[in-house]
Amino acid sequence: MMKRLLIITVLLFGALVAFGQRDVSDKENEAAPKTALIEAQKDYRKAVKEKNSPLLIQSLIRQIKYQSLIDMDSIPPMLQNLEKYIETDQNMVEKSILHSLLAELYQMYFNAQRGKIYRRTPITGYVPRNIAEWTSNIYNEKIFQHALDAVKAQPQLSEVNCLTYKEILVLGKNSPALRPTMYDFLVYRSIDLLNTISLYNKQEPITDKQLLFAPVKEFVQMPIEVKKMDAYSNTLKLYQSLLQSEMAAQRTDAILISDLDRLTYASNIGFNWNDSLYIQTLEQLAQQYSKNPYKVEILYKLARHYYLDSKNKDLQKALDICNNGIRQFPKYFRIDILKQLAEEITQTTVFYSIKPNVYPGHKQEVKLSFRNLSEISISLYKITESTLEYLNLNKRTPKLEKISTHTYSLPKRLDAQD
């Protein structure tokens, strides 16, 4: 997705190394995790001594990753130790990144142990010291808490360029323009984390269509009632804070993309609203940014809607949107998304079915389903083999004699016809 122009890669337990360790041979380290763990611990001590925040975070990730390869059961106490470290950390940027990291690590560990955890009776009112006793609601609360704590220090995070922490980031093509600060980066990570929680936990519907689809200048001023442990309202609040920050910095391209992401999110969580409201808002957005190359991202959303939506399906309109975008922004770095969609829309398809046996005096019926096809030819062949020869052909193709060919003109349309 477009919003993932800046990526932070976190470890998968027992699998991939985290945060883009390009200068480390993963295969070698995974083959000898104890050696790699010792090196990571050395780097951690060095980072503490030199107050090197990027190296400190990098070494913490590596320690957790390689420790997980040695003994998966040692991960819970490491996560709890990381939580204690965060409580005493005085570097607000480092602290925020670690909050985000810990939220994702809790989520990953929860996913890896989901079967066991779901068999436990939910515990409320307190959190057991032993993480082995934690229930699903406690993990969700921890993930939620750290995801939100990661972006609390907005003033400080907004002053720090992401490139300051390039050692632990994998930068996308347009990251400097669209996600230049650590605040931009961490907000999107928090949104992703809350979205994952909403997949497995019932959320309270948001029915205020004015809040969901308001123009960005109105949306950033609207009051949002944030509810505890409610992913929908908290995510909308995160989008609001992000857009406020981008508007204050006058980053037009970033505002476009963030607002598009916000509207797409709203369309996915909205209840009891007409689909046309989302489309109307996208069309207004496309008009507002009519000369901005990032408009391609808006056009792609619109075209996909008209291509895939069962209620408002309009293949010709979807194709026109693609072609107009391709003509207007031929050099946009993601223009292939429109080209590929246009190819998919105009692809010729044909399916047929016939009766396997037709007796003398009866008609053979051919049922045809097609799309984007103007003409079709059907040929009739006679098998010249005797019945006995035909039955003993095995895999050899029988001798055929063409009897006739019939060509039919079809109404060439983008939508399927029978």
Descriptive overview:
By secondary structure, the chain is mainly α. Helix content is 54%, strand content 8%. The protein has 19 helices and 6 strands. The protein has helices at 26-31, 33-50, 53-70, 75-88, 92-112, 114-118, 136-149, 154-158, 175-178, 182-200, 209-213, 216-219, 231-248, 252-269, 275-288, 295-308, 315-328, 336-346, 387-391, and strands spanning 6-7, 170-171, 349-354, 366-371, 375-383, 400-409. The strands form 3 sheets. A two-stranded antiparallel sheet has the order 1-2. A two-stranded antiparallel sheet has the order 3-4. Helix 7 packs antiparallel against helix 10, helix 16 packs antiparallel against helix 17 (315-328) and helix 16 (295-308) packs parallel to helix 18. The model is unreliable at 1-25 (pLDDT under 50).
Short description:
With 418 residues, the chain is mainly α. It has helices at 26-31, 33-50, 53-70, 75-88, 92-112, 114-118, 136-149, 154-158, 175-178, 182-200, 209-213, 216-219, 231-248, 252-269, 275-288, 295-308, 315-328, 336-346, 387-391, and strands at 6-7, 170-171, 349-354, 366-371, 375-383, 400-409.
